[in-house]
Each structure stands twice: as structure tokens, then as C-alpha cells.
Amino acid sequence: MVHGVQPIEQVITKAGSGQPAHVRFVATEGPTMARRKRSCVSGAVLIIEADEAYRAVIETCVRLAACRAEAVSDLQRALPELESESFDALIWGVGPEEDRWSELVAQLRARTDARVLLLADHFEAAQAAYEAGADQVLPKPFIPSALVGALKAALRRSPSLMMHLASRVEIKGMTFDGEGRTLQFNGQQVSFTVQEWDLLAVFLSHPNRFLSAREIIRLGWRAGEHEAEQLRIYVRRLRLKLEPLDVAGRLVTQHNRGYCLIVD
């Protein structure tokens, strides 16, 4: 059956007989409806999920988010899809047997700019996912409406709004190396995780300007379900790494104003 054609079975009563009659109505798409649906698609999503039942539910959630879905059963089948087609988001249902998945998330980030949403089955997996570069992590089993909302939110955050430190950049004697995610200053060097680096990029894109948590999220920094709490944690981690270097800049926080990287 063509996708998008939903059969509806109803039981009605034959006139005058009292006998139930099963009637099957099939809603078909005309050319106008098909064009309208295609114009409403807001992104392409690749689903990686081994469990067939889970995969069917995730596909439904993707369509409810007005996105086109492609589904594969494992990561090895996903890699050729990522090579041949551009996706806006990737949803990966991680099974308990995949003990190397944190490393694999980092490999995915190197292959695609798509938003990466993970469905993880325990807290340790979720925490490691953020470190590896996942945009969002939801518990597994998940609430379908939560997945729909997370996908919509991920697609609204444009990575183009954020300064990407993809190469070596020098600012006030500080050398930022995007390939290694490192900062060098006065012969000292410090390394950053993916989330720390992306947050630092947001601040460097808007030096000497206070940014609220909402603005930082809008500018493309990846966060999980508890965005404000995660942001406070990562700001504190950045501060702990920058302060010992005595760099020509400091990260400050002001109530009701937000966060600011002051570059001297």
C-alpha cells in the first residue's frame, strides 16, 4: 500500500436487516493533496533501530513531525545512506548490547551535520552520549509525543547561526584548533569535549555581549531535555578550563542578563 493511504474499517448495520456489515474505506491521495503534503515536509530523517516494533513507532513519530523517514536496522546499513543522501536529523535507538556506541556517536558526528537524537536505556548511556556529541537523548522506552517534540526542536535549531571553529583561529594570543578542539595560550594547552567546544564557539561569535539561555539554544548549541540546567553545568566546566590559563578573556554570569565572554 502507498505510504500515507490509511484504511479505516468501520462496522455499520445493513438497512432493515440488523446484520452488521464490515465496510472498508480507503482514503486516497489526489495530485493536489500529494503536492501539499510534499510542500509541508520539514526535513529528512534517518532512523537506526534494530527492533521492528520500535522502528515502526519511530517512523510514525517522524511523519507526525512532518518529516520524511528512511529506516535501517543497524549502523552498518546507515553509513551508506549517510554517504549517498543528506539528512537533517538522525534517530538512533541504542540497544544494551552496544557497548561501543559512545565512540560510534563520535564517528557519526564526523560523517554528518545532521542532528543526532539517541534513544538510550540508562542514565550512564545518556551522559556519555552528550560527551560523544549527541544533540538530544531520550529514555528508552520513550513517550512518542516527547520524541515528536524533540525532533521538531532539533530541526528548529540552525547550526548555521553558530560560529564553527573548524580551523585554527587566533584571538588575543589565544589559538583555537578546531580539528583537535584545543586552546593554546602562553605555552599551555587545554582540550574540550564536543559540547564544550560548541558552547565556546557561541560565546566567541558574540564577544562582550550577554546571551540568555534561550538565545544560546537558538544560536545552535546542542542541549538535552533539561536545557537550562545543562547550560549551567557546561558554563561552569568552561570556566574551570579557561581560568587556570589566565587567558585574555573571562566568562561571567549575571542574573537576569545571562552569560558573557568578556575579551580584554
Element string (H = helix, E = strand): EEHEHEHEHEHEHEEEEHHHEE
In CATH, what is the class of the largest domain?
Alpha Beta
Corresponding CATH architecture of the largest domain = 3-Layer(aba) Sandwich
Task: Output the strand order for the largest sheet.
Answer: 4-3-5-6-7
Count of the domains: 3
CATH topology type of the largest domain: Rossmann fold
Q: What value does the Rg take, in angstroms? A: 23 Å
How does the major sheet shape up?
5 strands, parallel
Number of distinct helices: 9
Number of strands: 13
Mean pLDDT: 75
The structure class reads alpha/beta
CATH 4th-level superfamily of the largest domain: Response regulator
Q: Looking at the structure, what is the overall shape?
A: elongated
Oligomer: single chain
Unreliable sequence segments: 1-40, 158-163
Straight-line N-to-C gap: 64 Å
SS strand fraction: 25-35%
Classify the helix fraction into a percent range.
25-40%
Can I get a quick summary?
With 264 residues, the protein is α/β, with parallel strands linked by helices. It has helices spanning 31-40, 52-64, 75-84, 101-111, 123-132, 144-156, 194-205, 213-218, 227-242, and strands at residues 7-13, 20-26, 44-48, 68-72, 89-93, 115-120, 136-139, 168-171, 174-177, 182-185, 188-191, 249-254, 258-263. It contains nine helices and 13 strands.
